[in-house]
Specification:
There is one protein chain. The protein is of the alpha/beta class. It is built from eleven helices and six strands. Helix 10 links the parallel strand 5 and strand 6. The longest helix is centred in the C-terminal third of the chain and has 25 residues. The radius of gyration is 19 Å and the shape is globular. The N and C termini lie far apart (about 45 Å). The relative contact order is 0.22.
Length: about 325
Amino acid sequence: MPALPDTPTTMPHRHPQPCASHVRFPAPRPRISAVVVRLWSAALLTTLAACTTPPPVAPVAPVVAPKPAVRSGHLPPPAAPTDAATLAVAARLALLGQPDVLLLGEQHDAPEHHRLHLAVVQALASSGQLAAVVLEMADSGQHTRNLGAQSSEAQVQQALRWRESAWPWSAYGPAVMAAVAAGVPVLGGNLPRPQNARTMHQAALDTRIPPAALARQRQAVAEGHCNLLPASQITPMTRIQIARDATMAKTLGAAIRPGQTVLLLTGSQHADKTVGVPLHLEPRHSLRSVRLDASGPRPDDAQGFDAVWPTAPVPARDHCAELGKMPGLGR
């Protein structure tokens, strides 16, 4: 498919740089108890996915999302974006064609990515192309199919069993409510948390993806935990990541409708065609994957994504330094 004007079409391949490459650990490393690891390791998979050291990049055309109302716990009805934003998003979507599945790989702490979620949902829904919205932010089995277009935010959050502590509704609610208001089902796609412990022991998951992809997943797990995770935990935690990708792919496949597009909102690693969800989709389904870029271009973008949409950078956070301040985890 044609590349976006601001998207590199050929790049040398390399593994992603560690998000905390500037951190140095003195030897010997402190020993961490298994109990402590279990308490913080799963949470870090989400929070550390956003680690970046962003260089300056050119922002995209602004996308206007509704601001939360003053009343606590209430978001205003989704409003149409500005004409400029509509044209910008529609032009980018046109370059992607009409795939069965469209993956938007976000940086979880980038506000502009959440505004793009809303704009894409509205653009696809207004053209009748949107079959469903699948969320990494909600567990598989939760959905809004039984809700009407006038349902409240509270009803939608209850239907999805939304976890505010992990995913702020103020960030994702506008896109979700835009889909509901358009009569489009919103589906949880992630591996249900109660299945994590069992998944860690499923050795068959080690063969679900190619060896090179498995090695990259293991590397990402280690680096995502600031290289503090005991070696014995890397394989079990990697299995959880693979199972999450497979679960999202299964949800996407079940929601596909002829002539329409199922949209997945997820983190950029899950959207990567070389390691993530696309490896688990049936080849007969057409797909396009977009990385929303708040950290600058990556040398492996051309292999992992069909397009890269640059956005305004977000301030860098040293998650590994924050981790080192946790009781019992100082370096």
